[in-house]
Every structure is written in C-alpha cells, then in structure tokens.
Amino acid sequence: MTEGQEDDVLLTLRQQRQAAREARRQAKDDAYEERLARKRSKDVQFFHGHHVVDTRGLNQAFPEPESPEFSPASVRRRVVHAVTLVLLVAVVVAGVILAGMVQRGELELKIGFARPTTPAVTCPAEKLDYPANKAITVNVFNGGSTEGMAGKVAAELKKRGYKVGTVANAKVEYTTGAVVVSGPGGHAAAFNLQRNVLHPEYVQDDRTGPSVDVILTGEYAGLVAAPKVDQTPGVLSCPRLSPSPSGPPASGPPASGRASQTATK
User: Fold this and answer.
1) Does this model's pTM top 0.70?
2) How far apart are CA 224 and CA 123, in angstroms?
3) Which residues, including other chains, have CB under 8 Å from residue 194's CB and lie 6 or more apart?
4) CB 192 within 8 A of CB 133
5) Which pLDDT score is estimated for 176?
6) In whole angstroms, what is the distance from residue 49 CA to residue 38 CA?
7) 116: which of 55, 151, 170, 172 is 20 to 30 A away, CA to CA?
8) CB distance 153 to 134 below 8 Å
C-alpha cells in the first residue's frame, strides 16, 4: 500500500469516529428536547417530566382481593353485636308475650313475698285489755281491688298513734271486711285493731313477735270512728273457730267468708 492510500484509510477511520460521536451527541440532544417537551406539556399524566399515577393505575397495580379479610378482633366484635341484638329481640318478644298473658288473665303476677299463715285451731279465749295505740306496730295489706286503699288506711292509723310497718298488696280468700292476723304474742294488739276496724275477723299465725297485720278485703267497710272505739276489755272475734267468742263481736258481725287465708306482701 502506498503512502497516499494509507492516508486515505486513516482519514476514513477518523471520519467514522467523528460521525459516531456526532450521532451520540445528537441522541443526547434529542432526549433533552423530549424531556423539555414533557415539562411543557399540559398532559396531567406527567408532572415535571414524571408520569403521574392516578386511581385507575393504582387499582390496576393493586387489585382488591375477591373476598375481604377481617381481623380476629373485628370478627369477635361482629359476633358480640349479633348475639346482643338477638338477646334484646328475645327479651322484647318475651315481654310482649307476658304482657298479653297478663292482660288476658292467663298469668297472675304476685308482688312481694308470701307469708304462710297457720290459723289457730281454737279461738283465743283470754280476756284482753285494750292497749295503747302507740304501743302497736301494724302492717297494712290491700287485698281488694281498690288501688291505694292500704296506703290510705295506713295513714289514718298513723294519725291514731299506731306505728305503721309494711304497706303492700295482698291476696286473701276471706270475704269479711278485714282480717286481723297476729302470733300468740300479739293477741292484745290484734284485739285493739279489731275494735278499730269494721267487720274484722281474727286469724293466728306462727310469728313470734307482737306485730299485727290488717288485711283489707274487697268487702272492707272502713274504720270505726275514733271517738266511738270501744276501749273496754274483751275477747278476740274469730267466729269460724271453736269455741265461739264469749261475747258479741266488738265492731259488729263479720261477713261470711271462706275459712282459709293467704297473704302476700
């Protein structure tokens, strides 16, 4: 190869290298221009040359699971809420059913505690003095259908000096005006109350204290006027027991009734 030919080859190689550098420089310039064009673009998907990911893109990248997963605490709360709701519904339904049964008379609700009464086999026959009203503690029970009767009678007895204990409702099988109940130690107190109540009848139970109960029946006729109360000595009136009282009833003859008696406070 002659010297002239060698110079032509070297020139060609330099031109090729220069052309490659120009191509790389042009590629960089094109990329820079593209970035500037993106910055100047009004497309909301690009911000300062960066691609903006919207909701659609996020949903595509992170799809929701087909069945949601709940934490154990959330599951427990849901179970507790469901059980509580079922119990509340059951209570409401039971209340409605009970109210309907009471209204139709199929169920009788008794308020208070039953006090079993053991009637005496014979009527106490001892002659009793009339004790002072203030020394007597009396419990008043309403066995009739007039609402508030026990409270009214208790207030009147309190005005007369008695110590009033329990005031409540009762159930009694007697049809006499009022039933006076005491234990063996309350004969004198019961005698006092019989003199103050119209149409009374005495029943003895097994209590040990001196307290006395007055049970007002549906035939209750009222109290004897305070100035007219007989305070002379006498005996208890219990005509359905034997022997019969030695004297006439203190406050008039009792009405007829059944021999058994139960009371609830």
Assistant:
1) no
2) 23
3) 180, 200, 202, 236, 237, 249, 250, 251
4) yes
5) 80
6) 5
7) 151
8) no
Other C-beta atoms lying within 10 Å of the C-beta of residue 139: 21
Please report the pLDDT score of residue 99 as a whole number: 82
**Do 204 and 179 form a contact (C-beta atoms < 8 A)?**
no
> Tokens at residue 249, please?
């009833």
Got the DSSP string for 98-161?
A: HHHHHHHTS-----S-EE-----SB-----B----GGG-EEEEEE-SSSTTHHHHHHHHHHHTT
Q: For residues 73 and 68, what is the distance between their CA atoms, to the nearest angstrom?
A: 15
Closest CA to 198 of 227, 243, 229: 229
Q: Degrees (nearest 5) of the Cα angle 129, 130, 135?
A: 115
* Distance (Å, whole) CA 186 – CA 165: 15
H/E stretch holding 180 reads strand 178-182
Model confidence pLDDT, tens digit, residues 217-255: 888 889 999 999 999 999 998 876 644 444 333 333 333
**Residue 94 in tokens:** 């039971």
Choose among 117, 109, 134, 112: nearest CA to 192.
Answer: 134
